[in-house]
Amino acid sequence: EVQLLESGGDLVQPGGSLRLSCAASGFGFSDYGMTWVRQAPGKGLEWVAVIYKEGHITYYADSVKGRFTISRDNSKNTLYLQMNTLRVEDTALYYCVKAQGGRIQDWCFDSWGQGALVTVSS
Amino acid sequence: QSVLTQPPSVSGAPGQRVTISCTGNNSNIGAGYAVHWYHQLPGTAPKLVIYLTTKRPSGVPDRFSGSKSGTSASLAITGLQAEDEADYYCQSYDSSLRGYVFGTGTKVTVL
């Protein structure tokens, strides 16, 4: 059974930094692309970032480009999201998600963690 | 602001058929990228119910079906059941944004 367990969510002041981690188990972590998707309170889903299985190719939503960095350690089966220069509008539940599919443009998100809550407030 | 537009809500009586539309443009759905659908029960993580526009993951009942035409896609739920009451999101890829996009979300209510 696929399990994705996020950690690192916290209350942080605007301009601060935070790193989320996602421990993966139940599947060949190094064989799949991974993504982060966030959901602000009472709002819809927003894709944040994606990383190829090898870790050398990454893409970001414009809203976080230059501030967030997605990375992975395949030896530890762990996905990361380094978040810098946080803004109030980054407040959300951040989901760690396993991607599935052929070409990257057609990837779907087939397994989701329970989310890590990030609150940006003074 | 999402580039994929869904109706805010749809409703139906138990046993009825409801459809949810997902309207995009020629940078996403109209460009031939796959469409996927997720449902989300309150307080839980989203779950994939349709992938690659028409395929159902194992365990998803055949009451759920997907289709696409031009710059729009649709999710149909037949034989509506109380457990289908949830929020539903479509998802695709946008070549202009060079990233994935989700729909605005639709709340399905079982009357």
Summarize this structure briefly.
Chain A has 122 residues and is an all-beta fold.
Would you mind describing this structure in some detail?
The complex is a heterodimer of chains A (122) and B (111). Chain A contains no helices and 11 strands. Chain A has strands at residues 3-7, 11-12, 18-25, 34-39, 45-51, 58-60, 68-73, 78-83, 92-100, 108-112, 116-120. In chain A, strands 2, 4, 5, 6, 9, 10 and 11 form a 7-stranded mixed sheet that branches. Chain A has a 4-stranded antiparallel sheet with strand order 1-3-8-7, with no helix packed on it. Chain A is globular and about 40 Å long. By secondary structure, chain B is mainly beta. In chain B, strands 1, 3, 4, 7, 8 and 9 form a 6-stranded mixed sheet that branches. A 3-stranded antiparallel sheet of chain B has the order 2-6-5, with no helix packed on it.
Rounded mean pLDDT of chain A is: 97
Low-pLDDT ranges of chain A: none
* Biggest sheet record of chain B: 6 strands, mixed
The count of β-strands of chain A is 11
Q: What is the global morphology of chain A?
A: globular
Oligomeric assembly: heterodimer
Distance between termini of chain B? 30 Å
Low-confidence stretches of chain B: none
The amount of beta strand of chain B, in percent, is 35-45%
List how many beta strands of chain B DSSP finds.
9
Order of helices and strands of chain B: EEEEEEEEE
The Cα radius of gyration of chain A reads 14 Å
Based on secondary structure, the structural category of chain B is mainly beta
- How many helices of chain B? The count is 0
List strands and helices in order, with pairings.
The complex is a heterodimer of chains A (122) and B (111).
Chain A (H helix, E strand, L loop, with lengths): L2 E5 L3 E2 L5 E8 L8 E6 L5 E7 L6 E3 L7 E6 L4 E6 L8 E9 L7 E5 L3 E5 L2
Parallel strand pairs in A: 2-11
Antiparallel strand pairs in A: 1-3, 3-8, 4-5, 4-9, 5-6, 7-8, 9-10, 9-11
Chain B lengths: L8 E4 L5 E6 L12 E5 L6 E4 L13 E6 L2 E6 L8 E9 L4 E4 L3 E5 L1
Parallel strand pairs in B: 1-9
Antiparallel strand pairs in B: 2-6, 3-4, 3-7, 5-6, 7-8, 7-9
